[in-house]
């Protein structure tokens, strides 16, 4: 066996006072050990040994010659992760979540992501019986069909409580992109810009927000959003084709220069236009990361199926019972995942 290399010089704080090694002659002379006090000697040796270990570990192993400082950090980090029950970075992979969410979820470990995926798969088909059965009343239909199938760790309500506020999946992920890359579409206003104001306050004041409504609410929206230069009001509605006070989704993207961009939040509450325009959302040259839509019509089977086929998962469902007399109002929130997420092996 090769002899152990001599220990490194102690830290500057200990210079001039080399460590007293347990069992050394210097320790015997210092304490005054003799052959007649072995019991006391043994006890003191144990205490000094324990204190030496405490000092050693608290100083991060300064007297351990075989480990570099980076190696000590790695050992320390691994021990901390093991002690907390969390997987260390070396044993935790986020690649699967990133791949199956197109990069949106970049910090979910593989085991947790697989659990989320299994839950979503177990929810399929996300309907009770035949969702096309016209004999089921509209209120019962939305009660029995299309429940949330995916969970966002940090889902947050943006905007007011009650009507007007919306649930957003992990808004901090949008914030981390930086204000310059944050793009929000809000279709349907009726003069209420509380959601848009909350986007600026809770996510990023740098978000570029476009509000669409054929009503004359430009001044109202500006007042409610603090006259932010990043909020733009467009006095036209969304339709399947451009005509009169309406424009198609594709023409809207082209006019505003948003072709091939990512719209981080696409909020649409247009009193029924959702069923006439959803195909255009999915076919347009743009990526809609989240879709927050209030559905007003009965039996939107094709819409739900089309969104599912495009990779969208329902992460929130909220019946709007405040205005349900004679109307169907159900808030649905979707987050875009890769079609691979839905693939069964």
TrEMBL record:
Superkingdom of origin organism: Eukaryota
The Methyltransferase domain, residue ranges: 96-335
Residue ranges of the region described as Disordered: 1-20, 80-99
Biased composition (Low complexity): 80-93
Comp. bias regions, Pro residues: 1-10
InterPro entries: Methyltranfer_dom, METTL24
Protein name (Swiss-Prot/TrEMBL): Methyltransferase domain-containing protein
Organism annotation: Stephanodiscus triporus
